[in-house]
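Here is the promised in-class demo. Please do not try to memorize the tokens; focus on the logic of going from shape to residues.
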């Protein structure tokens, strides 16, 4: 009886320790569930359900991995993915993009791959999305190679077999294997620069000048303009300023930034654009909410003031037409930098608008109009989905442009 009692105490202590470890992951899981579902409101419940499911399946988690933060995170991320997929099916949401994640099921925690672990930083998940897209592109490229060439590349760079293992399996000397690998990589590059040139340039896998096209540092992306929904965005690079940006050939300049560290490690235009919009959101909305921000050029304090169509600075009127827009005007006394960002851009810079765009893919801007909101003068703007009736309405206080409300309609 005494031995049994000690066993129970040990078991209770172990369970308590396990719950403490799970609780440490809660904040990360909330962020992960919000990203995977696109529904921050449901993220808390989904994270809690993930933790409960992990508790119920704790016996499937290897004891020796209990103290490994990496293993726990991978295991819980796999469970969260499945929980979010079930939530999507029950709510009629298409979460097919989650299949790009290759998390194992809770039955196989030991088979998880380190490369499949999303970071706790929401935007680092874009790297995971890129990995899935790049893997598909690589599959297509490999399929165009001769079988013997394809086999040796897969063994070395996908299965990560050593030179000695591959040479022994193929009956080659290691020197001969190295030569075959070298020729295989050249063949793969030729495929990327010919049959798959457009896709390879989209992900930055080949130099546009090497391919003999896009000499001016411009390339068409697969991203539809969120303002007009009539043209695909052009990604450009300006050597003089070091700026990379995105513009619509038919209507607006969407985003641009010269600090490439913001999107370091990313190649997909959509991922780079997401990072830029996130950075610009902080920049512009600090100017609106606090009246100042840090200059993009010199990093010194930069003042912002709200402008209305009738007092838009002359230097910017040509960009926005005769009617003009409400917006925020920025001026830096230190370096002389000036910029005016109008309401359409301020709207797409909002995190909620970016999430709406990611969910629906093709959207278009709803022009601003004057309304009365809770007894005060306001502006209404937002975005409409091009594929269904979903829309995002953003209400601004007319004189300050501070956000009074954000409403999403899905019916």
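The designed amino acids, position by position:
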């Amino acid at each position: 009886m005494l031995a049994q009692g000690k066993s129970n105490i040990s078991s209770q202590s172990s369970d308590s320790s396990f719950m403490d470890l799970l609780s440490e992951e809660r904040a990360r899981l909330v962020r992960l569930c919000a990203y995977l579902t696109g529904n921050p409101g449901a993220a808390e419940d989904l994270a809690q359900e993930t933790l409960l499911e992990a508790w119920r399946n704790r016996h499937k988690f290897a004891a020796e991995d209990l103290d490994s933060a990496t293993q726990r995170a991978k295991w819980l991320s796999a469970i969260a993915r499945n929980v979010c997929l079930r939530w999507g099916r029950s709510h009629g949401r298409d979460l097919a993009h989650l299949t790009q994640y290759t998390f194992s099921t809770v039955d196989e925690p030991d088979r998880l791959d380190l490369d499949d672990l999303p970071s706790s930083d929401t935007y680092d998940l874009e790297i995971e999305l890129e990995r899935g897209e790049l893997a598909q592109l690589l599959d297509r490229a490999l399929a165009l190679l001769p079988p013997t060439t394809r086999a040796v590349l897969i063994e070395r760079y996908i299965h990560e077999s050593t030179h000695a293992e591959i040479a022994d399996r193929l009956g080659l000397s290691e020197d001969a294997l190295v030569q075959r690998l070298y020729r295989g990589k050249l063949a793969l590059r030729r495929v990327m620069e010919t049959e798959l040139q457009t896709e390879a340039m989209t992900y930055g896998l080949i130099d546009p000048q090497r391919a003999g096209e896009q000499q001016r540092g411009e390339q068409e992306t697969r991203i539809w303009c969120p303002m007009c929904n009539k043209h695909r965005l052009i990604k450009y690079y300006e050597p003089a300023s070091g700026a990379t940006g995105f513009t619509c050939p038919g209507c607006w300049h969407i985003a641009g930034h010269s600090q490439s560290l913001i999107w370091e490690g990313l190649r997909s235009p959509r991922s780079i654009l997401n990072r830029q919009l996130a950075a610009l959101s902080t920049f512009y909305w600090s100017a609106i909410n606090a009246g100042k921000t840090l200059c993009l050029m010199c990093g010194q304090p930069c003042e912002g003031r709200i402008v209305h169509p009738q007092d838009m600075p002359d230097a910017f009127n040509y960009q926005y037409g005769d009617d003009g827009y409400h917006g925020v005007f920025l001026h830096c006394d230190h370096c002389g930098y000036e910029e005016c960002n109008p309401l359409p851009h301020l709207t797409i810079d909002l995190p909620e608008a970016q999430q709406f765009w990611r969910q629906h893919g093709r959207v278009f801007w709803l022009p601003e109009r004057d309304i009365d909101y809770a007894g005060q003068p306001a502006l209404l703007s937002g975005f409409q989905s091009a594929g269904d009736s979903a829309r995002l309405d953003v209400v601004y206080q007319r004189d300050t442009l501070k956000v009074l409300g954000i409403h999403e309609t899905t019916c």
